[in-house]
Fold this sequence. Notes:
Blueprint lengths: L2 H10 L6 H11 L2 H6 L2 H4 L5 H5 L7 H10 L4 E5 L7 H4 L7 E6 L8 E5 L6 H16 L3 E4 L5 H11 L4 E4 L13 H10 L1 E4 L12 H11 L2 E4 L7 H11 L3 E4 L10 H8 L3 E2 L3 H5 L18 H7 L6 H10 L4 E2 H8 L3 H13 L3 E4 L3 E4 L2
Helix pairs in contact: 1-6, 8-9, 8-18, 9-10, 11-12
Amino acid sequence: MDDDAASWLRLLRTPGVGPARYQAVLERFDHPRRLFEASRALQREALPDDVIDAIPAPSDDGIVADCQWLADPDHHLVHWHHPSYPDSLRGLSHPPPLLFVHGDPTLLDTVQLGVVGSRKATHDGNRNAFEFARYLAAMGVTITSGLALGIDGAAHEGALDTDGRTVAVVATGPDRVYPAAHRDLACRVAESGAVVTEFPTGTGVRREYFPRRNRLISGLSLGVLVVEAGLRSGSLVTARHALEQGREVFAIPGSIHNPVARGCHQLIRQGAKLVESARDIIDELPPLPVPSTRGPDTMSRDAVVETLDDPPDQDYQRILDALGQDPQPLDTLLQRTGLTPDTLSSMLLILELKGHVSVHPGGRYARVR
């Protein structure tokens, strides 16, 4: 067993020690090991007697299980003094003292955008999350989300589709996957990105842990994009955390008849930036490094910004020609182009992201002049 890791884990597993008390110990002793080596009188300067009495032994079953999980070369414990601990979290109030990471821990300190939304997303919502994530990941942005059904899963899939980087923040221990339907997705995220949690092994699904997961998503990110959300969605909690942390909040508007668009509309009324195309997000991000991904979207941020106004290729030009002078419904475009609904919808979204097409009430599309 790694003695240094065991010291960090002993304090994490001490009943009554949360992020605030853990931080108090680090401020007083700098390292958990020094707390355990100190006299009881000195220990009382950071912890009350009942908490000191509850400190587990290094042989505690939970600590042993944590260390067994860490024995895998792709499993990492990123504590407060670890070189991969992200600077974005250090400025938070009561930041997590350590993180369990399955995958690449260096991704925690990259330029990240949180993409969140409803678990019961619409087809268009999932498509928007996938395409926005795919487009931004190809530009070098790390897409961070919560591995949930709906928008979260679509965002991870979009980033993976272009061999981009994605981080999944979860509310369980690192040895568990929730929801179980996303077990394969979690494995693929870990292979090319990272699955992250602040909870030790054996931690199951508990409702009160999801707000902490949401706070970590926004804390790691420069901004949060809410794709679809109802008025009681946990995504609004993520957005609130983002505002408290000084992050940007973006929201995609939807139909006034769509209940999972109302949360986005509320955010926009409260000052979130309305997003209609990728440019709306790109303009708020710092310069990005040249991404190491494949495909035609592999280019620097400046190059991508320039291509937003480039004329589209012949296939996309056919759609633009079909739009005519006035906004057209999807059915009319299907007749004029001869494309299938899925193909046309995907191509329209790409044109929208590049700023060539705008969406109007009633599901109509217009060419941007």
